[in-house]
Specification:
Blueprint lengths: L11 E5 L4 H15 L6 E5 L15 E4 L15 H20 L3 E4 L1 H10 L3 E2 L4 E10 L1 H4 L10 E8 L2 E2 L7 E6 L2 E8 L3 E4 L7 H10 L11 H7 L10 H10 L2
Parallel strand pairs: 1-2, 1-3, 3-4, 4-11
Antiparallel strand pairs: 5-8, 6-7, 6-9, 9-10, 10-11
Amino acid sequence: MTSTDLPGDRPFVLLATRAQDGPADEEYALFLRFTGLPPERLRRVRLERESMPDLDLDEISGILVGGSPFNASDPIERKSAVQQRVEAEIAALVEAVVARDTPFLGACYGVGTLGTHLGAPIDGTYAEPISVVDVTLTAEGRHDPLAAGLPETFPAFVGHKEAISELPSGAVLLASSPTCPVQMFRLGQNVYATQFHPELDLDGIVTRIHAYAAFGYFAADELDLTLAAVRRAPVEAPSLLLRTFVERYAR
C-alpha cells in the first residue's frame, strides 16, 4: 500500500522532544520513511520548543511518540523546566488517549509516558546499553495485529537508562528480551509502547550515538565499542510496526 492508497485524510501526529536539530530532523525523516506517510499526513510537534497544541483526537488518525533524552524516573530537582512542562502535557494527553483508546504508539519514551500514567515502577533495573538485542514476541504478541509480519524473534536497537521493572496492571505483554522483560506492551486495543526503537536504522542510531555521547549512555572511552555493538546484527524487522500502525489506523 502506498501513501496515496491510505484511507481518509486525517493526519498522524509525531510528538518529539529532541533539542538537537540533526537527530530531531533525522528522526522525523525516519518516521516518514518507515510509515510511508507524506509530510502533510505526519504532523511533527517539537515539544521541547513549543507547548502541546490543542489536539482534537477525533480529527487525527493516531499519535506517535519518538525517543527522548528525558528520563521519567529522574528526581524532580534534576528535571529542567522544559522537561517538567513536557511531562505534564504528555501526561494530560495520555490520560485522554487511554480513556478513549486512541491509536498511540510510543517508541522508547512511550514506555516511560504510559508507564508513569499506569503507576508502573520505572527505574534502572533493566536499563540496556546502546546495542542490538534479540526481542521475542510473547504468545499474545504473536497474535496481536500490530505485530503481524514480525518474526517471533528479531534484532532491535535499544539504548535506555530506565525501563518498566514490572508490567502494570491492565497491560498486555507483547515482547520481551533477556535483558529487559518489558519490550512491548498494549493497553486496551489500540495503545502501544515499545522499549526498543522501531524508528531507527543503522545510520540513525549512529547519529544519536555521536549526538548524545556526553549524555551518560556510555563511558567516554566506549565510543568505538558502542558503534561496534549496533553493528552486531542487521536490524530490519522492527520498522514494520510503524507501517502496520499507519495501515491499520489511517482514516
